[in-house]
Amino acid sequence: MSATTTTAGSIPSKHEWLVILPDHPDSLSTRQQVRPEHLAGIKPLADAGTILFGGAFFENPPPVGEAPHVKGTVLLAYAESKDEVLELLKQDAYTKNGVWDWQKVQIYAFKTALRRALEGGV
Prior knowledge:
The protein has helices at 28-47, 82-89, 93-96; strands spanning 15-22, 51-58, 70-79, 106-110. The protein has one domain (15-110): 2-Layer Sandwich (Alpha-Beta Plaits). It has a 4-stranded antiparallel beta sheet. It starts with 14 loop residues before the first strand and ends in a 12-residue tail after the last strand. The chain is α+β, with helices and mostly antiparallel strands.
């Protein structure tokens, strides 16, 4: 039986987790500096199916040609527990370099109803 297969009365061993990771104020320059390290660390998690999607969020769409005013990161993880997701993210370059504000992090159990690949993602 796969991790997503269930039988009557059973609970799958892995679940989707929607994670909202707000940035500390004035952390944009640090975010930009450590982004390559962040992407290098998150890519193996995506390749393994642990991170299903992720990206930056903004107050408003950034104007063309202007640097975006990033508010934080949103991602969808696939793991056995909330604690497993949080432990993985605490190893991320954005955590280690003080980009994410861990006092404001939110994580919710989630169930995808619709998913479509986005052209041009990293």
